[in-house]
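Inputs:
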Amino acid sequence: MTGLDPLLAATVRTTTPLLLAALGELVTERAGVINIGLEGAIIGGAFAATVGATHFGIAGGYAGGLLAGAGVGALLALFVLFVRADQIITGTAITLLAFGTTGALYHAVYGAGGVALSIPTSAALRIPALAAIPVVGPALFDQPAATYLAYVLVGVLWWHFHRTHAGLDLRAVGESPRAARAAGVRVTRVRALAIVFGSMLGGLAGAVLVLAQAGTFAEGMSAGRGFIAIAIVALGRWNPLGVAVAAVVFGVATAMQYVVQALGWPIRYELVLMLPYVLTLLALVLSPRSAAPAMLARLDQ
Amino acid sequence: MTERAAGRQRIGVVAEQLAMRPWAAAGLAVSGVLVLGAALVGLVYGGAAMHAFWAGSVGTWYALTSGTLVRAVPLILTGLGVAIAFRAGVFNIGAEGQLLAGAIAATYVGLRGAGALGAATLPLALLAGAAAGAAWAGVAALLRARFGILEVISTLMLNFVAADLVSYLVRGPLQEPLHIYPQSATLPSIARLPHFGPSTRLHWGLVLAVVLALIVWWVLVRTAAGFQLRVVGANPFAAAATGRISVTRVTTHAFLISGGLAGLAGAVEVTAVTYALYDNLSPGYGFTAIAVAILAGLHPLGVLCTGFLFAALETGATAMQRDAGVPAAWASAIEAALILAIIAGVALRTRASNLARGGSEE
C-alpha cells in the first residue's frame, strides 16, 4: 500500500489540467480543427490568471485564464476560418506568440529576476460523504473546484455530443461539413464556437496550474500540456469518456515520476513518462480509422 | 483512399500558396515587423537596448561569426527539412524529435566508436545522426503511408518520446563516467567537427548547411525527383492521375529526407557546439524551423536567409536581455508575428486573385 495514496493524490492533481485541456481539444477536433495553439492558450491562461489573481483575487484569476483562452481561440478562428490560413501553421505560430508574449510580459511586469510571487490559491473543497471513502476518497473528493468541474464536463460533453441537436451539428461539421451545410447548419459559426470554447478550457487549464497547483507563474510552465492534450484526445478515440480515461493514463505516468523518485523505486521514470505516447501511437494503429473525425485537420475550401 | 486524397489536396493548396512568389510578400512582412519591433524596443527601452541588440547579433565580428552564424546552422538544416516536407504536402512538425534522435546517434558513435573508427569517427557520427533522424521520421512516415495516421499527431508524440529518451540515456546508459551530472561524457577531439580557427566558435557545419541548401535547391528545381515532389505537393490528384508518380512513395521519401536533415542538425550540434548530450540540448530549433521554412516561402535558398535572420534575432535578443535587461522572449513574439503577417498576406492575396479570376470562394 505504501506509495498508493500519494500516487492517487498526485495523479488526480496532474490529471486535472490535462483533462480540462483535452476536453477543450476534443470539442475543437470534433468540429474538424486541430488546435496546435492550445499550448499557447494554456500558457496565456496561466499568465492572465497570475495577473488577474494578483489584482482581483482568485475569481479574477480564473476569469483572466478564461479570457486569455478566448483571446487565443479568437485569433486562431480568425486566421483559420476567415483568413483561410492553414490551421497547423497558424496554431504553431500562435503558440510561439503566446510563449514569447507571456515570457516578455512576465519579465516586464514582475522584474527580470522573476520575483517570488505570492498569489492567492484556491483551497481544496472537501465533499463530506464522498471524501470519507477509504483510499480513493481524499484523492478524488478533497480537491479544488476545478477538478470537480472537469468530472462534470466529461458527462456534460458526452450528453451534448450524443443527446442534443447542437452536439449533432458539431459532429456533423467535423464529419461532413458539406452535408451539414446542406442541412442548414452554420458551419463556420459552429467551428468558431468550437475553437473558442476549446481554447477557453485551455486557458482554464493554465489558470488551474497557477491557482490550484504552483501558486506562481514560470516561463514555459505549460510544459507541452497542450500537445499532450492532443495525444490524450487521440488515445481517448475522440469521445469524452475515452478522453477521461486517457487523461488518467497520462496523469498516472506523470505522477509516477514523483512517486518513483520519492520512494526510490528501481525504475527509470523517464521510461515511464515515455509509455503513454507509445501507447497512443499503438492505439492509433490498432483502432479503426473511423475513430477520428473524417475532416480532422482538413478544412474544405 | 478518396478521404486521404482529400486531405492531401488541402495540404497541396497550402504548399502551392506558400511556395508561390515568396520574395515580395516575405520582404514586405519582414521589413514591416522588424521596423515595428525596432521602433517599439527603441521607444520603450531606449537606445541602449537597440545598441545591445545590434552589438550582440551582427554588429561585431565575434557576435556575427561565433554567435549568430553558429546558431543559424541548426536552424538552416532543420528549416531545409521542414521546407522539403511541406513542399511535398507532408506536415512534419517533428523536426525537434528528429534532431534529438540525430544527436543521440552522433553522441553514441562519437563516444563508443572513437577507439576503433579513427579518422572515420566524425563522418560516421554525422551519417549516423542523419540516419537516426530519418528513422525517427520514418516511423511517422510509415504510420501515414500504411495506416493513414495524421503525421501532425504522430510527429508531435515522437517529439516527446525523443526528449524522454534523451533524459533516460543521460541518466542511464550514456551518463558520464562519474555518474554525477545528467549528461554524456565529452566527445573526444577525433569526433569533433573542426572550427575555422582557434579564436572562433564558427565551425564547418556552416559550410555543410550552405552546400546542402544549394543541393536541395538544385534537386527541387532541376531534377525529375524534385519535379515529382513539387507536383505531389501542389496537386496530389493530378500527380496520381499521370500514372507515373506514386504519391505515397514521393511523400515518404520527402518525409525521410526531412528527418535526415533534422537528424544531421542534431549531430552537428553535438559534434561542433555542445560536445555532449544532455536535456534541453535544443532550445526548440525544431519548432523555430517551421517558422524559418514558412518565412522563406519554403524555398531552400530562402531558408539560408531566414535561418540567419532568426539566428540574429535570437542572439541579439539574448544580448539585449543580458546587457540592457530587455526580455529575450520578445524575439519569439516577433518571430510569431512575422509568420502570422506572412500567412495572412499570402492567404488574402490568393483569395483576392481567385476572386479576380472569377472563381467563387466556396
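Residues 1-10 of chain B have pLDDT under 50 and may be disordered. Flag for discussion at group meeting.
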